[in-house]
Amino acid sequence: MERPRILITCWRRPFATYLGEMTVLDTLDPAYAERVVTATGVALVVSRPPETSGELIDELLAVVDGLVVTGGGDVDPASYDAKPQNVDGADLAADAWELHLLAAARERSLPTLAICRGAQLLAVAHGGRLRQRLSLAGDHRELGGLAPDEILAARHPVQVVAGSRVERALGGTTVSVNTIHHHEIADAGELAVTASTRSGAIEAIEPRCTWPCVGVQWHPEKMHEPEQRGLFEQLIEAARERTGVVGA
Q: 5-131+183-194+204-243: which CATH topology?
């Protein structure tokens, strides 16, 4: 059986190397690709081109069966007509590139999983807005001062809407997730909110149409809980259905 090809975006940021203190590199946690491969897909990590064009995106999406829009720096508030208040790692060119990818994926009904920053961009692409400070009312934890292992281990419960795509992926209406984000979705725009915290913070969104797409505010690729793999398995299943190779 041919494996579906999944395009994965990456994060461009400066690192200290032998070439200089601010060497710009494309980076990505390998866990994204590992989860795609474990779910029987082929991971294609794609660098942002110098210029975004509809023709280039058409050619790129013509050779893949699904899309993962990953985490990274904050979405620039200019992308949703807001003033910056608490912003780190914003990149307007990255926002434009990934917003174009999401629009083209929706037009093609390309199976899509949007994670953390990706979910925030999914909301912005549908008329939504972000909150530049986390809702900390008993659900999220302030990450400043926490050690990396504490951040990775921290969990909070979310309620998932029955019958939603995210519920079908996770297999339940209550799940514990991590908090590794700096901004959060304040308004999902045209999208349906399909998971939230007890205090009402938005944790998952998805289209109301037939486009097989899910956006989650948490990082499932960084979680060991087996149900989190369901989000990637659902993506691959939808990609197989789209290409007509189910049961081949």
A: Rossmann fold (3.40.50)
